[in-house]
Amino acid sequence: MRCPFCSSNSTKVLDKRESGNYLVTRRRRQCIKCKRRFTTYERAEFNLMVVKKDGRRESFNRDKLLNGILKACEKRPINNSIIDQTANDIENELRTINKPEIKTSVIGNLIMNKLKKIDKVAYIRFASVYRDFQDIASFETEVKKLKNRG
Q: Beta-carbon neighbour count of residue 31 at 10 Å?
């Protein structure tokens, strides 16, 4: 592991912890050369192809998933740990599907279901982009559905 401060290749692990769901390993490291400490996170690679609406295929990217959720939750009173846990939950659900390819519609629906439980405004924000709302009527229809369900 290369030190982010001095670029030395000599580091040692001071502490290692597994996350609650054992998907991420956190390692506290120290550079042998400059003696500075830093943290690294190790996540198991997840080989899944995502099939886009236009038929293109690309590798699953957790960062894209997380960024979509973050964008929807922007300026909302939602703790970052909840957002990160939501992304973890969705990634875990995708792992359990156990298929080599998955459509973006499945991922989008998983995100919307989770956001609906966390924050209604974040849900509407995500739905407006995901479902490509073209006018105010589209927003009104979705808000009415949300009000009627709960």
A: 21
Distance CA 89, CA 75 (A): 22
Query: Residue 3 CB: number of other CB atoms within 10 A?
Result: 20
Q: Which residues contact 82 (CB under 8 A, 6 or more apart)?
A: 118
Rounded to whole angstroms, the Cα distance separating 141 from 149 reads 13
Task: Name the 3-class secondary structure at 53.
Answer: coil
Q: Please indicate, yes or no, whether the overall pTM of this predicted structure exceeds 0.85.
A: no
pLDDT (tens digit per residue) in 63-93: 999 999 999 999 999 999 899 999 989 988 9
132 CB contacts (<8 Å, ≥6 apart)? none
- Cα–Cα distance measured from residue 45 to residue 149, given in angstroms and rounded to the nearest whole number: 37
Between β-strands 11-18 and 49-51, what pairing exists: parallel, antiparallel or unpaired?
A: unpaired
Q: Answer for the pair 17, 26: CB distance below 8 angstroms, yes or no.
A: yes
CA dist., res. 123 & res. 59, Å (int): 25
